[in-house]
Amino acid sequence: MAESSRLPMETTVTIPAEAETLSATLAIPEHPRGVVLFSHGSGSSRFSPRNRYVAEFLQQLGLATVLLDLLTPQEENQDLRTGQWRFDIDLLGGRLVLAADWLHQDERTAKLPLGLFGASTGAAAALVAAAERPQNIAAVVSRGGRPDLAGNALPHVKAPTLLIVGGQDLAVLDLNREALKRLDVEKKLEIIPGATHLFEEPGALLQVARRAGEWFDQYLVKPGAIEAA
Question: pTM, whole model, 2 decimals?
Fold first, then answer.
């Protein structure tokens, strides 16, 4: 995987989601080999420093990235007070599907293979979207995710799926092991030794980014993707 020190410019885009409009940050390298749509976890947003770190790593590998707000500003404010939306996986997964559809229609990304990167509850939304759009989603990566919350969608996921969990995130690790059993697809559980849920330990998030990059390089990028783009 070739890396470049130059990061692409970011563009703020709006994505229609039925009666609402979602904001996202789009970054496209000069010769994109694919595009990765990020699905953040509860209480977070497209400005999550951890997801932005991974996104910038992927951009250096030639992948376009889309950091998406799954909730509107009004919904985010309400969720901070009540927690009403953060575990509504059907809603979050549905909005991720709409964002994926938008990427397949937008001329900047329409010809690029699409992968999903989900964190925490956003991982469940990513798996729900992958199950609903098996023909469009080429690969999925989960960081400290709650894939168990995808429920009955798990056996219907067709995209190769990587689950990354911190070795000290014991409760989430158990949930990922159980979810892994229900995935009937190319799959892998990667454990980052010594890491906790937010991968705040020195070097832990870099290991996440590297493993995600390797997974997308293997399963997302296809021969001829540069020429097709």
Answer: 0.90
The number of folded domains in the chain is 1
Token pair, residue 213, equals 């990059």
- The three-point CA angle 134-85-135 to 5° equals 5
CB-based contacts of 169, cutoff 8 Å, min separation 6 = 144, 195, 196, 197
Confidence at residue 44, expressed as pLDDT on a 0 to 100 scale: 61
* In-domain check, residue 229: no
State the DSSP H helix or E strand holding residue 210, giving kind and residue range, or none if neither.
Answer: helix 204-219
Task: Determine the 3-state secondary structure of 149 from DSSP.
Answer: helix
Q: Range of 45's domain?
A: 10-222
> What is the distance between the alpha carbons of residues 48 and 52, in angstroms, rounded to a whole number?
6
- In the chain, the percentage of residues whose pLDDT exceeds 70 is 89
Count of Cβ atoms closer than 10 Å to residue 187 Cβ: 17
Domain containing residue 212: CATH number: 3.40.50.1820
**pLDDT band for position 127 (50/70/90)?**
very high
Looking at the chain, the whole-number percentage of residues with pLDDT higher than 90 is 76
Residue 137 near residue 216, CB atoms below 8 Å = no
* In a domain? residue 3: no
